[in-house]
């Protein structure tokens, strides 16, 4: 009986170790795989190499429906989440609600080049766009998926996202209108990027601006290997977990985001998930300035 239990325990531990090692392992080759007319099985095989993968994904339902021009016409009265990437105040909310038609007006002013919208799960649910994501992602969805996360991103001309990385098993970014520039940095270069974890919004980022590097970070950033890409409408890229990235909007553009976790990838990031849960219980953010009567 003891031998039987020992074999079972050993098998379970070995199973967990193999899967944990696979999900935490990374690849650091400075190259992007481009594929054409790929099958779903072949896509999974290539994505498992943990390298960025770029291909055409001309899904008409997504391209025609989930772009900022069409969405302004149909859903302009709904709130999206707005972020000013220059604001570094840890006491204030990172994301604030704003009407979609109002943010489009802000985008048209070229002086507002530090404004992006993202983290729009609630917007997708309220407008019914979430169903369009779910009906059109069967090709992207990995086997044994446990969690699917969808988002819509956009930004004013010349605006860009912070430098950061994801910890999900798959992270697809589909350009549905306009064009974007993308900077990719391999995981091993993270030691030069002054990594900062914000568990309140569950973001793993860096204070380094890869598009206009601050003087204080230049000596370390000179050691970093950077891969520059351009994506146009209809192109999609999978950014592997732990790869650093920053997206720059060449003009007012739209991006559909598909993020997936499998059961075992979720187990591999349990420490991060627990930290995020604890942080959300302990942090309070200000959404407006306080007035003192003293």
Q: Supply the helix-strand structural class.
A: alpha+beta
The name CATH uses for the topology is Jelly Rolls
CA radius of gyration is 20 Å
User: What does the oligomeric state look like here?
Assistant: single chain
Assign a percent range to the helix content.
Answer: 25-40%
Distance between the termini: 74 Å
Task: Round the mean pLDDT to the nearest integer and report it.
Answer: 89
| CATH-level-2 architecture | Sandwich
| Low-pLDDT sequence parts | 287-294
Strand order of the largest sheet: 1-2-13-8-15-6-5-3-4
What is the general shape? globular
Name a few traits of the molecule.
294 residues, alpha+beta, Jelly Rolls, nine-stranded mixed β-sheet, six-stranded antiparallel β-sheet, 31% helix, 28% strand, disordered C terminus
Task: Describe what you observe in this structure.
31% of the residues lie in helices and 28% in strands. It is α+β, with helices and mostly antiparallel strands. It has a single domain, classed as Cupin (Jelly Rolls, Sandwich). The strands form two sheets. It has a nine-stranded mixed β-sheet. Strand 1, helix 2 (40-47) and strand 2 (53-56) form a beta-alpha-beta unit. It is globular. It holds the Pfam family Cupin_8. Residues 149-256 form the Cupin-like domain. This is Cupin-like domain-containing protein.
